[in-house]
Amino acid sequence: MSIKTTLTVLTFLLFSVASVTAAEPEFAKDIADKAAWVRDHAADDNKSMAIVESLTTEVGPRMAGTEADARAVIWAQNKFKALGFDKVWLEPVTFPTWKRGVEVAEIVSPFPQPLVITALGNSIPTSEQGLSAEIVQFASLDDLKAAKPEQVNGKIVFINRKMTAHRDGRDYGPTVSARGDGPVEAAKLGAVGLLIRSVGTHNHRMPHTGNSRYKEGVTKIPAAALSAPDADLLVNMLARGNPVTVKMTLGSQPGPMYTSHNVIGEITGSELPNEYVLIGGHLDSWDLGTGAVDDGAGCAVTMAAAEFLARHKLPLKRSIRVVLFANEEQGLWGGNQYRDRHAKSVKNIIAAAEADFGQGPVYMLSSRVKPEALPLVKQMQQIMAPLGIEAGDNNASNGPDLIAMRNEGMALFSLHLDGTDYFDLHHTADDTFDKIEAKRLNQTAAAYATFTFLAANAPMSFGSGESYLVEKAKAERNK
Ligand SMILES: [Zn+2]
Q1: Would you call 328 a catalytic residue per the annotation?
Q2: What is the 442 CA–ligand 1 centroid distance (Å)?
Q3: Interval 117-134: pLDDT, tens
């Protein structure tokens, strides 16, 4: 071999090695083409509409721990089977229950008139005669925290934080703190009750329920939400400068422990059946509406996405697992118990995504994967772009029922749902099937089908259970 030839061969070898190490992971052409087909065809499928219609009609409100919770579990098992899932099973989830009772309120003085309220989840009852006290108003939970006991002692605290509507729902967190922590903060200052302006973005006369918490060592006080116009009424009356006295009567009660179930349906993958894409929503709802947008929609789009892939016999290297979580609303019980059971096998979850922010449409795809897998995410974003989906960052955190597994270093994706009108309906009597629009729900189901198909056929791990995601979760928790 001449020196020249040797050099040429060496150069060639070096170049080959370099290009092998620099090669970015990518989906096989066949998979990318099929994903585009899924994207275009699942968008016309009305299966997810039929599923929400079925759940809201045949089960309806299904608050955790009620007899309807048990009926929802049976409905979900039967639906998975009817949709052709290969395996359907239950995993028990145990939690304390809470029951709503009578809930009425009125302004006693200076200008007597009724108020529309609903008890916050977890609230203790008032006495049967009701609780009458003067109102003290605060603009936010932070203002309440800054108050002196003499301002609050013996009164009913009224927190009037107005929530504004945004596509990403970013004002929910700052507003909902009054609901979650209001009872404890008010009681610490000697309040005898709590009324909050509903955590919502509509001015209909419908109060929004939702969970609240007590703390060991702090007196429990009854807590309820006023509809937005009733909150405005109180504000106007208080503006006249005279004391306003309100009477409220709540009959809500804590109940015994109850065991419900995460209901799981799986479509078995062909090459790596133990590895799976985890998608789903929560099966429970609040009791006021029929749980159409929260979270019938999330259950439906994920069930329909998996069913679409199976019905059209698309190749699936890994399994698809749809989990309908139990009791999200009263403390993420289903998600936490899923973690207790499956944290050890987090590496088997190729990727996860939960739909729990209404009917959509999906406007962005963000990820939470190891850096080496980012070229795959980019390709997924390109394939999904024709659905009107933008590329997001690598800090996805969506999915209340996935928080526990996220802390174990699970790779996840967020299919960001347009939440502009979600908090008009959220946790109210108005969360009913007629609010669901086929065009929006179908787009969401198509986005889930496309995402799920690609994740099931990914050429490499997204990093579940590997150090990058484990450390990322740890760093976030320590913040
Ligand atoms: Zn929800």
Answers
A1: yes
A2: 19
A3: 999 999 999 999 999 999
